[in-house]
Specification:
This protein has 12 helices and 34 strands. With about 650 residues, it is an alpha+beta fold. The chain is elongated and about 110 Å long.
Length: about 650
C-alpha cells in the first residue's frame, strides 16, 4: 500500500470516529433536552416544556419521544399541532409509549374526528392492565362523550358564535366575562403576560388577574388594562358578577384554597379591598364560582366542600334578615353529578339555570347545560345540553346572558381561537322579513295570486318551509324566514309550478331586518288580458255570508258589460272561504258564493252556458289565515277566463 493510500485510510477512520462522536453528543444533548422538558411536563408547565422538545426536534426532526411529549403539551394551546405531532410519533415509533392510543383518541376527540377517537379509545382499552380500573372507566366515559359529541355536532343549533377579538383575547386563557347593566363595561379574567406584573405561576403561565375594557362600538372594545386598585392580589383572582346596580363585584380569590369575595366600588370609581362573602359560603375547601339573583335573595355557588371525592357541586343559600347568607343547601342530584358541576348562572329573562358540567351527557370537558325550575313539582327539570356550536368537545364555561337577554357571553377553548380559552359571544340567528312583488316577464305587470314557497334547511339539516300568496289588490307578498341560508323559492299559479329560483338570505342577529326581493316569471295574467279589463278583482263576503256587497255589484256589472261585448268569452266562477268551520261546511259556503255571482250575471243577461262554477272552500287561500284581515281576503269569489278546451264545456 503506498503512502497516499495509507494517509487516506487514516483520514477516513478519523472522519468515522468524528461522526460517531458527534452523533453520540447529539443524542446525549437530545436526551438531556427531553429530560428537561419532562421535568416541566410533570409540573404541567406545558408551554415551557414544549420549548425543550422543540429544541430536540430541531436537532432530530424524527425524535419520536420529543414528538410524543410535545404533542401532549400542545393539546393545551394548539389542538391541530398536537394531533400532527402525536401521529408523527406513532408513524416513527408505534410503541413510543403505552398511552399513545389514549392520547391519539384525545387529540382526535377535540379535533372533531369522533369515529377515529372512538377507535383509539377502544384500542387503548385493549392495552390496559387488569388493575387499571380507573383508566378503564375513564376510557368508557370518553367513548360515550365522543358519541355525545358526534350526535350534537350532527344536529347543530341555529347559533352564531363569535370571538370577542384580539383586544380582549390573547394566546393565554381569558374567561369569566362580566358585563355591566348597560352592556358597555366588561370585566374579565386573563392569564396573559400583563397579569400580576408578568410573574409566572408553578405551571409556567401567569397568575390570573381581572382586566377591564369599555365598549367603543357594536363589536369593538377599548384597549384592556389590569383593573387598578385592590382587586388583584399576588395569586389567582377572577371576576364573577357585578350586582347592586354595578356597585359591587363578586370575585374569586385563591386564598384559603379558593374563596368567593365581594368588593365595593369607591366614591372615586375604584374598587375597594375584597372581603369574604361569609363563613357559610367559604370553607377550607374550594369555592370556585357564584351568582346572586337580581332580587338579591338567593346565592348559587359551586363548592367542593361537601362532595365525597372532591368534585364541585352547586349549592344555594338564602339571604338572611341581617344581610348575611344562610346555610347552603345542595341544588339536588338532578343538577349535581359525581363530576364537576360549576359556574351557575340564573336568568330572570327565562327562568333558566345555566351551568357548566363535566357530567351529564357532555361532549367532552365542560359543557353548558340549562334547566328550568318546576314550581309545581318543586324540582329542577332534567338539564339539557346546549348543543353545538355552543358546546365543543373541549371546555366551555361561564355562560352569561347580556343585560337584555338577546345574546350571551361564553368562555371556550375551541378551534380557531387565539390560544387557550377565549371569550365569545353567542347569538341566536334571527328571522328576516322578505317582501316584494311578482311580475310578468312579458308585460312587467304585477301578478296577484302567485303562491311562493320558500324551502330551506335548519342548521341540523331538517327542512323548513314558508309560504305566502301575492295579494289580490297589490300582488305583494311577505314572509318571515330564518336568516343565514339559501332558499329554493317555488312560484306557482293556479296550482301549476311556473319556476323555481334560489334566494340567498344573509344572516342577521336582530329581528328588525327587512329585505325586498321581486320575482319575474314567464306568465301572462290571462284573466286581465282576455277580459280586456285593467283587473278582474275578486268579490268579497262577510263572515259566514254569501250575500253580494254593493262594491261587488259594481265589479259584476263590469264583467257583465264586457261579456256582452265579447260573446266568445266564457268564464269560471270560483268560490272560496276562510279556515273557520269544517272543510265540508266551507265547501258548501264556497258553492253558495260562486252561485251568488253566477245568479247575478244571469240576471244581467249573461247566458248560463257561458259560465261554470266551482268551490274550493278553504283549500286555496289567497293568503295564510293568520289574521282577521287575511281571512277577509280569503272570503271571496274569483273569475277566470276559460281556456278554449274549457270553453267548449261551457257552451
Amino acid at each position: 500500500m503506498n503512502q497516499l493510500a495509507k494517509s487516506f485510510s487514516r483520514f477516513s477512520m478519523l472522519l468515522v470516529v468524528f461522526l460517531l462522536l458527534a452523533a453520540s453528543a447529539s443524542a446525549q444533548s437530545n436526551r438531556k433536552l427531553i429530560r428537561s422538558g419532562n421535568k416541566l411536563f410533570a409540573k404541567e408547565n406545558y408551554r415551557s416544556a414544549v420549548e425543550f422538545y422543540e429544541q430536540a426536534l430541531a436537532n432530530d426532526p424524527d425524535n419520536a419521544d420529543a414528538l410524543y411529549y410535545a404533542g401532549i403539551s400542545y393539546m393545551t394551546f394548539d389542538k391541530e399541532k398536537a394531533a400532527d405531532y402525536l401521529y408523527r410519533a406513532q408513524q416513527i415509533k408505534p410503541n413510543v409509549d403505552r398511552d399513545l392510543e389514549y392520547w391519539l383518541g384525545r387529540a382526535d376527540h377535540i379535533n372533531y374526528r369522533f369515529d377515529s377517537a372512538i377507535e383509539h379509545y377502544q384500542e387503548a382499552q385493549k392495552n390496559l392492565r387488569r388493575r387499571d380500573e380507573e383508566r378503564r372507566e375513564e376510557l368508557a366515559m370518553l367513548i360515550q362523550h365522543a358519541r355525545n359529541a358526534q350526535r350534537e355536532v350532527a344536529n347543530p343549533k341555529d347559533v352564531f358564535v363569535k370571538n370577542l377579538g384580539g383586544i380582549v383575547n390573547s394566546a393565554y386563557s381569558e374567561h369569566s366575562p362580566v358585563i355591566s347593566s348597560d352592556d358597555n363595561y366588561l370585566l374579565y379574567t386573563s392569564r396573559s403576560s400583563e397579569a400580576t406584573g408578568g410573574t409566572p405561576a408553578r405551571d409556567g403561565e401567569y397568575y390570573e388577574d381581572i382586566f377591564e375594557s369599555t365598549r367603543t362600538g357594536e363589536d369593538e372594545w377599548s384597549p384592556t388594562q389590569r383593573v387598578p386598585g385592590q382587586l388583584n392580589g399576588p395569586g389567582h383572582d377572577a371576576s364573577i358578577q357585578l350586582f347592586d346596580n354595578d356597585t359591587k363585584l363578586l370575585l374569586y380569590r385563591a386564598d384559603n384554597n379558593g374563596d368567593i369575595m365581594v368588593a365595593e366600588r369607591q366614591s372615586d370609581g375604584s374598587w375597594g379591598a375584597p372581603k369574604s362573602i361569609g363563613d357559610n359560603i367559604n370553607t377550607k375547601h374550594y369555592e370556585s364560582d357564584a351568582y346572586i339573583t337580581k332580587d338579591g335573595q338567593r346565592l348559587f355557588f359551586s363548592s367542593s366542600a361537601y362532595s365525597e371525592y372532591g368534585d364541585l357541586d352547586i349549592f344555594v343559600s338564602q339571604r338572611q334578615s341581617d344581610g348575611s347568607w344562610g346555610a347552603p343547601k345542595s341544588i339536588g342530584t338532578t343538577i349535581n353529578t359525581p363530576f364537576d358541576d360549576d359556574s351557575p348562572y340564573y336568568s330572570e329573562h327565562n327562568g333558566t339555570l345555566y351551568f357548566a358540567s363535566t357530567g351529564h351527557n357532555t361532549m367532552g370537558g365542560y359543557d353548558i347545560f340549562a334547566s328550568k325550575y318546576d314550581s309545581v313539582a318543586r324540582r329542577w327539570a332534567k338539564p339539557v345540553n346546549m348543543g353545538a356550536p355552543v358546546n365543543t368537545p373541549d371546555d366551555d364555561t361561564y355562560y352569561r346572558l347580556s343585560p337584555d337577554g338577546s345574546y350571551a357571553y361564553l368562555s371556550s377553548y375551541r378551534i380557531g381561537g387565539y390560544g387557550e380559552k377565549d371569550i365569545y359571544t353567542i347569538n341566536y340567528i334571527r328571522n328576516v322579513r322578505v317582501k316584494g312583488q311578482v311580475f310578468s316577464k312579458v308585460d312587467s305587470l304585477a301578478i296577484p295570486g302567485v303562491e311562493l314557497i320558500f324551502n330551506g334547511l335548519q342548521a341540523d339539516k331538517r327542512p323548513i318551509s314558508y309560504r305566502d300568496v301575492t295579494r289580490p289588490d297589490s300582488a305583494t307578498y311577505q314572509v318571515d324566514v330564518l336568516s343565514g341560508r339559501n332558499f329554493q323559492v317555488q312560484l306557482s299559479k293556479d296550482g301549476k309550478l311556473i319556476t323555481t329560483e334560489e334566494l340567498e338570505v344573509p344572516m342577521t342577529l336582530n329581528d328588525t331586518t327587512t329585505i325586498t326581493q321581486n320575482f319575474y316569471i314567464d306568465y301572462v295574467d290571462t284573466t286581465a288580458a282576455r277580459a280586456g279589463l285593467m283587473a278582474v278583482n275578486p268579490v268579497y263576503f262577510d263572515t259566514d255570508e254569501y250575500n253580494l256587497r254593493p262594491e261587488s255589484i259594481n265589479e259584476l256589472d263590469r264583467i257583465a258589460e264586457y261579456m256582452k261585448a265579447n260573446p266568445m268569452v266564457n268564464i269560471s266562477i270560483e268560490g272560496h272561504a276562510d279556515s273557520r268551520a269544517s272543510d265540508a261546511y266551507n265547501m258548501t259556503l264556497g258553492t253558495n258564493r260562486a252561485d251568488a255571482a253566477f245568479d247575478y250575471l244571469v240576471s244581467k243577461g249573461i247566458s248560463a252556458k257561458r259560465m261554470v262554477t266551482v268551490s274550493y272552500g278553504e283549500r286555496r287561500p289567497a293568503v295564510p289565515n293568520t289574521s282577521a284581515e287575511n281571512m277577509q281576503l280569503n272570503r271571496r269569489t274569483e273569475f277566470k277566463v276559460l281556456e278554449r278546451a274549457d270553453q267548449n264545456e261551457a257552451q
